[in-house]
């Protein structure tokens, strides 16, 4: 089953593309987007994005995602993929989080769990809700 979940690339998304997959967002990150490095990204939203990401991981692992913290399209997408809750839960607690930069307004974080490294892309809407969320192992 784990292989099957990995095959879908652990994506909280409506549709796959050739690059990173956008999760229920009107302005989806793409592979042709400009990327900033952590050293040049002075965005004050980074701490908010990191806090939202860690809260979301914790809520997914608890089996009770906070759909109210997500835009409706993303919440509907998460609800439609219950196997992802089990996958995220199987990682155990996050051990390390590192900000890697921005891609088309989404913040890229590397999150290490015991035995698995993951990459997460999160974008917040102007209202502060999570508009896009994508993750993959590796």
Give an account of the 3D structure:
The protein is of the alpha+beta class. The chain has one domain (2-11, 42-137): Nuclear Transport Factor 2, Chain: A, CATH 3.10.450. It has four helices and five strands, in the order αβαααββββ. It has a five-stranded antiparallel β-sheet. It is globular and about 30 Å long. 33% of the residues are buried.
Low-confidence spans: 1-33
Tell me the radius of gyration.
Answer: 14 Å
The proportion of residues forming helix, as a percent range, comes to 25-40%
Tell me the number of helical segments per DSSP (H or I, 4 or more residues long).
4
On the 0-100 scale, what is the average pLDDT? 78
Q: What is the number of strand segments? A: 5
Instruction: Fill in the CATH topology.
Output: Nuclear Transport Factor 2, Chain: A
Characterize the largest beta sheet: strand count, sense, and whether it forms a barrel.
5 strands, antiparallel
**Name of the top-level CATH class:** Alpha Beta
- Tell me the overall shape: globular
* First and last CA, distance: 18 Å
Offer a quick outline of the entry.
This protein has 138 residues and is an alpha+beta fold. The chain has helices at residues 2-7, 46-62, 72-79, 83-90, and strands spanning 35-36, 94-103, 106-113, 116-124, 130-137. Helices cover 28% and strands 27% of the residues.
């Amino acid at each position: 089953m784990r292989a099957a979940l990995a095959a879908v690339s652990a994506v909280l998304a409506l549709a796959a593309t050739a690059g990173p997959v956008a999760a229920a967002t009107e302005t989806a990150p793409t592979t042709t987007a400009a990327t900033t490095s952590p050293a040049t990204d002075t965005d004050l939203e980074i701490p908010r994005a990191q806090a939202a990401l860690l809260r979301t991981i914790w809520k997914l692992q608890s089996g009770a995602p906070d759909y109210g913290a997500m835009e409706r399209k993303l919440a509907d997408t998460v609800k439609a993929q219950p196997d992802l809750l089990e996958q995220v839960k199987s990682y155990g607690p996050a051990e390390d989080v590192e900000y890697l930069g921005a891609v088309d307004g989404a913040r890229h974080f590397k999150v290490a769990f015991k035995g698995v490294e993951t990459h997460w892309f999160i974008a917040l809407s102007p209202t502060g809700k999570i508009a896009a969320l994508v993750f993959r192992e590796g």
